[in-house]
């Protein structure tokens, strides 16, 4: 008997429109090695990817070897990743021919072409050729933090709002398709850079590009990595480890009233959960590179049905209903309720007695979890001292064993701002003796 | 027990290990971890506080710490952490019943996750130390004190090494031609071969200042009183004696031999098993299971464990017996051997069968339940004699059922005299001997460096 999906009738609609670029789903390949050539992108589309941002086109460059570095965290290889690869090293004619062929084979998929050139004339030419080849949208690479920035491009543009705005305005002038500006995270505040793109007329932004980094050092050779002969250079950091930085920058722009452009979220997305987080913080599509480089295109199968299952469970019919759903809850510290109080509770029936929480609390927090003296290995939380910091819950290896439970302390909600401006009273501090 | 060995065994043991000895046919049943696997496994360790695995280890190795060092590729530091607690860490990694010690205590067992493979990780670190010939310890400055150690097995080796770190001179008296005790002569070769034990002995002795008196029996060649007067302290790590006998008719027939004696022979010499097709091991302990698995490993077609209790009631570790069964071992339960028989009543040339009675649940013989089990090799594994009586002439030392009685530090109650290992605990694991030898070394050091103990 054939498998029947009992929820077929309520299957959510994964189609997205990000800044005017349409795609069958929000999962796009980021401009990077996985979107380097026609056969690759075609295989990705066959696997289920909804769009691709073609590896950045410009004057083809010469690359070094090696180019990639991996950050291993407790045995997990590639938890962070960096690269010193530059833009395309293939002839432009080849790229455009393959873009056209791919678009012909997959007309409904989003074909975005990433671009990086210098002069206004070069921008005009390459935009025309991209659109002629069938681009559904353009992405201006103002983010690359290595190599290209030394030549006055990439993040050298993205770090200067005036230049960003000016070049964006050229591109918008020459383009007949939507223009996304890809932003660099190598700035102290992302907002002026998003706004510069908006003022230049961009239809949306994509972020983050990679973070300027040294991935590691060969401690036998005394050379940073990745090693090119006897030397190395700074590269762009990406992969799962950068997700928190990317989420913050996406959310910071998404809640900025003056901004208001669609966002294509990028940075450490490895699965549907990560994608949901980016969407809830304001992304209307997401781009993935590192996880594809580590695992291949077929990860998208789980991304698609994981997202579908989540949407069904939560009652979302379209991606649009999700975009920015968590933004109202992303606030300033001064608006947090200082009288909201939680304490850790340990479920003795789940505790395995590792007492990792004891060491974490004693050495890294507020010394309120103690080994028991009753012969079991289930620790005891001194709730009068527990500040509700969460550290124990984070280190506990057993899901659901430690929970942070709200305490009724009799105090009305009071934020720091309310306390300073209105004199609202705060509960007594805990663990501050 | 028979003074005459079965025809399958050589009449005498060479003083060094011949390359063609029978145990050479065995390979490790637990394969070593490759670096990648070791690091991945080490990264699973939760680094528990007051870790249960440490509390389950008689030598209190700081297991979370040595595992964390493996995870960072600090293998040298890892090995040092192990050896600091237990100088026999290499052999313990191979022979410890980790399932009932550290691994059995791992908190992952409480969440239905596979426990950390502590034994294999310990082997990974300690093997590296031996391969790279790392040395971590040196003798302390000479104290002018000297200690005699009776027996050259794990307890004495652990004690002597620790005493040397304190700077006391040591002399080991060993009745055999080789050191290592049961680690060398008694450990099942699929866990550790004799050459590996001797390598460990050499590594331990490399601290220097440990004199050896091999082929020397205390009480026979050297009087206890002479030891006491010559040395400032004496450690008794004599281990256990000969295999116990069933004391039933026919036990002297060729083909009936003590299991420990038989294992020593296959570990130290070449056994010819021509004509041996039905081996029966009498007993239900770990020596019996070891003997069963070795008999199978040597190619004997039918190997039976014959025990007076039930399968569930055997004292040997269930995980070891399960492994034996997987290799083809047969169990004959609730069976009491009453006589060993040749081909006929007058045949004394070779054992042919065991006459048995069936026992009930209370281990009482059931009337008219006689039956026989065919056997051309019988290994009797019902325990070993205790050697405590060798000290019986010394006042102040208490002997309880053959065991030397000590306090928790290894002190016997007679000034200068300490003891540890199988001769005190009645026969436990190598790791117990290592712990007791080390503890006694600390007690002896305290005694030697302070005023006279009374």
Can you put this structure into words, describing what you see?
The complex is a heterodimer of chains A (433) and B (454). Chain A has 433 residues and is of the alpha/beta class. Chain A contains 13 helices and 20 strands. Chain A has 2 domains: 322 residues, Aldolase class I (TIM Barrel, Alpha-Beta Barrel), CATH 3.20.20.70; 89 residues, Alpha-Beta Plaits. Helices cover 30% and strands 20% of the residues of chain A. In chain A, the strands form 6 sheets. In chain A, strands 3-4-7-8-9-10-15-16 form an 8-stranded parallel β-barrel, surrounded by 8 helices. The radius of gyration of chain A is 25 Å and the shape is globular. The mean pLDDT of chain A is 95. Chain B has 454 residues and is α/β, with parallel strands linked by helices. Chain B has 3 domains: 98 residues, Alpha-helical ferredoxin (Fumarate Reductase Iron-sulfur Protein, Chain B, domain 2), CATH 1.10.1060.10; 157 residues, 3-Layer(bba) Sandwich (FAD/NAD(P)-binding domain), CATH 3.50.50; 141 residues, 3-Layer(bba) Sandwich (FAD/NAD(P)-binding domain). Chain B contains 16 helices and 17 strands. Chain B has a 5-stranded parallel β-sheet with strand order 3-2-1-4-17, with helices on one face. Chain B has a 5-stranded parallel β-sheet with strand order 6-13-7-8-9. A 3-stranded antiparallel β-sheet of chain B has the order 10-11-12, with no helix packed on it. In chain B, strand 1, helix 8 and strand 2 form a beta-alpha-beta unit. The radius of gyration of chain B is 23 Å and the shape is globular. The model of chain B has no long low-confidence stretch (mean pLDDT 94). At the A-B interface, helix 11 of A face helix 1 of B.
């Amino acid at each position: 008997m054939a498998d029947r999906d009992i929820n077929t009738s309520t299957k959510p609609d994964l189609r997205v429109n990000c800044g005017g670029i349409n795609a069958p789903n929000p999962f796009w390949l980021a401009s990077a090695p996985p979107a380097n050539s026609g056969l690759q992108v075609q295989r990705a589309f066959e696997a289920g990817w909804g769009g691709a941002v073609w590896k950045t086109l410009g004057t083809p460059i010469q690359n070094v070897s090696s180019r990639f570095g991996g950050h291993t965290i407790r045995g997990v290889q590639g938890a962070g990743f960096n690269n010193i690869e530059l833009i395309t090293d293939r002839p432009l004619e080849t790229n455009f021919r393959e873009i056209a062929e791919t678009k012909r084979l997959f007309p409904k998929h989003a074909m975005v072409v990433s671009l990086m050139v210098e002069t206004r004339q070069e921008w005009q030419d390459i935009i025309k050729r991209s659109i002629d080849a069938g681009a559904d949208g353009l992405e201006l690479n103002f983010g690359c933090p290595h190599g290209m920035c030394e030549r006055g491009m990439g993040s050298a543009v993205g770090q200067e709002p005036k230049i960003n705005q000016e070049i964006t305005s050229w591109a918008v002038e020459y383009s007949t398709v939507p223009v996304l500006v890809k932003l660099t995270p190598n700035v102290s505040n992302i907002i002026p850079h998003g706004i510069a793109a908006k003022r230049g007329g961009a239809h949306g932004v994509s972020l983050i590009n990679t973070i300027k980094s040294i991935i590691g050092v060969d401690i036998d050779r005394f050379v940073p990595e990745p090693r090119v002969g006897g030397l190395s250079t700074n590269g762009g950091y990406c992969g799962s480890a950068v997700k928190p930085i990317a989420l913050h920058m996406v959310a910071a722009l998404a809640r900025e009233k003056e901004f208001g452009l669609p966002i294509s979220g990028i940075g450490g997305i490895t699965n549907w959960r990560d994608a949901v987080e980016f969407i809830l913080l304001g992304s209307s599509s997401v781009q993935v590179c590192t996880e594809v480089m580590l695992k291949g295109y077929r990860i998208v199968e789980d991304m698609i049905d994981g997202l579908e299952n989540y949407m069904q469970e939560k009652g979302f019919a379209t991606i649009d209903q999700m975009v920015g759903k968590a933004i109202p809850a992303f606030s300033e510290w001064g608006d947090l309720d200082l009288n909201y109080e939680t304490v850790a509770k340990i479920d003795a029936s789940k505790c395995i007695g590792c007492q990792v929480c004891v060491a974490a609390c004693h050495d890294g927090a507020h010394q309120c979890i103690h080994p028991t003296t009753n012969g079991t290995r289930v620790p005891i939380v001194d709730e009068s001292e527990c500040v509700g910091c969460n550290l124990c819950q984070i280190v506990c290896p057993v899901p659901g064993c430690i929970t942070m439970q709200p305490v009724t302390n009799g105090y009305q909600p009071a934020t720091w701002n309310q306390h300073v401006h209105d004199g609202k009273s705060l509960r007594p501090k805990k663990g501050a003796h | 027990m028979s003074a005459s060995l079965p025809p399958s065994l050589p009449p005498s043991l060479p003083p060094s290990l011949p390359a063609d000895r029978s145990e050479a046919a065995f390979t490790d049943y637990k394969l070593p971890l490759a670096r990648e696997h070791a690091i991945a496994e080490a990264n699973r360790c939760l680094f528990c506080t007051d870790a249960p695995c440490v509390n389950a280890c008689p030598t209190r190795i700081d297991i979370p710490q040595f595992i964390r060092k493996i995870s960072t590729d600090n293998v040298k530091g890892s090995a040092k952490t192990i050896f600091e607690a237990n100088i026999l860490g290499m052999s313990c990694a191979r022979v410890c019943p980790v399932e009932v010690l550290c691994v059995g205590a791992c908190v992952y067992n409480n969440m239905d996750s596979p426990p950390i493979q502590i034994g294999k990780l310990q082997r990974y670190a300690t093997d590296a130390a031996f391969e790279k010939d790392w040395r971590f310890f040196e003798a302390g400055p000479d104290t002018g004190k000297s200690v005699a150690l009776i027996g050259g097995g794990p307890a004495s080796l652990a004690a002597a090494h620790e005493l040397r770190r304190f700077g006391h001179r040591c002399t080991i008296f060993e009745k055999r031609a080789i050191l290592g005790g049961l680690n060398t002569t008694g450990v099942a070769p699929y866990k550790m071969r004799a050459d590996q034990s001797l390598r460990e002995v050499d590594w331990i002795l490399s601290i220097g200042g440990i004199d050896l008196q091999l082929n020397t029996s205390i009480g026979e060649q050297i009087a206890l009183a002479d030891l006491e007067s010559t040395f400032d302290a004496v450690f008794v790590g004599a281990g256990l004696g000969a295999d116990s006998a069933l004391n039933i008719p026919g036990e002297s027939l060729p083909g009936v031999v003590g299991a420990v004696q038989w294992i020593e022979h296959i570990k130290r010499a070449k056994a010819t098993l021509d004509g041996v097709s039905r081996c029966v091991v009498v007993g239900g302990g770990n020596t019996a299971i070891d003997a069963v698995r070795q008999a199978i490993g040597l190619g004997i077609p039918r190997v039976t464990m014959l025990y007076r209790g039930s399968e569930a009631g055997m004292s040997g570790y269930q995980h070891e017996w399960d492994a034996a069964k997987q290799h083809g071992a047969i169990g004959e339960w609730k069976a009491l051997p009453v006589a060993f028989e040749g081909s006929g009543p007058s045949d004394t040339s070779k054992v042919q069968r065991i006459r048995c009675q069936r026992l009930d649940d209370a281990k009482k013989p059931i009337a008219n339940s006689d039956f026989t089990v065919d056997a051309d090799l019988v290994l009797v594994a019902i325990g070993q004699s205790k050697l405590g009586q060798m000290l019986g002439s010394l006042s102040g030392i208490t002997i309880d059922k053959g065991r030397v009685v000590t306090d928790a530090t290894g002190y016997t109650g007679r000034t200068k005299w300490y003891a540890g290992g199988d001769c005190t605990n009645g026969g436990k694991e190598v790791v117990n001997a290592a712990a007791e030898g080390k503890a006694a070394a600390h007690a002896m050091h305290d005694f030697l460096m302070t005023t006279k103990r009374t």
